[in-house]
Input
Amino acid sequence: MMRSKFTLFHIQSLLLLLPLTLLPSHSATSPFLFLSSDLPLSLSVADYGATATGRHYDTAAIQSAIDDCASAFSLQHRPCQVNFPPGKYLTATLHLKSGVLLNISRNATILGGTKLEDYPEKQEKWYVVVAENAEEVGITGGGEINGQGLEFVKRFDERKNVMVSWNETGACLGDECRPRLVGFIGCKNVRIWDVSFNQPAYWCLHIVRCRNTSIHDISIYGDFNTPNNDGIDIEDSNNTLITRCTIDTGDDAICPKTYTGPIYNLTATSCWIKTKSSAIKFGSASWYAFKGLLFDNITIVESHRGLGLQIRDGGNVSDITFSNINISTRYYDPSWWGRAEPIYITTCPRDNNSTAGSISNLQFINITATSENGVFLSGSKGGVLRNLKFLNVNLTYKRWTNYVDGLVDYRPGCQGLVNHSTAGFMMEHIDGLEVENVNMRWAEEKTQLWNNPLDFRPSTVNNISLLNFHSGLYKQ
Output
């Protein structure tokens, strides 16, 4: 294999001579800066022997460039850039390291391998690109990382594709045994921008136990019929900013989860989302707290569910704001969680060994929705919903698909799918609900389906305030 024209000795020498010329960062949460690409501290995978044919593995060449960049960073703490010229780079797992920026140029694609031997032995390390315990690290360049997810389809199905599962080999347990696309685990100061993530075989972008992460101006595309191809999963991570992102995928689009620790200070703004599941979904992994999260200026298009909270494991959710959001939801097949709810807030124990958790102090401000089902607000005996506020909300209900109506979806766990007549607001186990300037409109041609604006049992719903609440028919 060819080695770089810049040996490690040359890099050390250059570091002694280079001025600290940096590009400005545009991230409020990720203050680190990368060297500009025209400086000598910039390595090309082509110089390391990468073929860029998309047929031969370029793993060794790419990893060598990353390793040399990381060595340079460790010497004088100056970041280094690994460049991908146009072409297709087939690879097994790549390990991104501290101080390294992957610069995937336009018309360049990193292709994830599709064989079990392309990935580490442990399932939790199955990523096409992964950074562990790294800092000052990122991905940019205008190019693409592609997981070749359609190669993992065992049988195509318009309802839900049947996927390859490596549990058949004994490598893992369960049906969701496929590699994720990109992961940052235990990292600090992560910046991801101007790059496309396409066709993940499983989750797409996974942020785990990280601090100070900026994700902006990216696009994510996953096959609409492929299960579990989540867009961005934020797990146990704090100080995260997501902005100006386009996500078009089959499963949950932006999904905060708490497995081993809480999530604080997550902001998502100015995003466009289409999904066959939930556009914004808390949980269902929810063992720890979610607190101080903001979702603003988001467009949700023809999704199976708009804003969803599935708290199943005892974690507490508080001080969350959803504002300036435009939602359209529709029915898809019942094999997917969701029944076209524009807003779905639930707490209930996952199973007999779980507790319900709690949800309090949620605000929904300036929300517009056109949906085939109503808002579902469901606490539980051990997890009452408290202090919910809806301000300046416009809800339009109409049917335009032929899927079966009249079901409430409690999945996962709880009661499963339950027969229930459709209502504008379906509510249970709530203490404190403030509704102000809410306008609910019903399609006239379906009045037999829309005969109940508010559905609740007074014994479980208390302290309701309705101010300027209006419900009525409209003609198309």
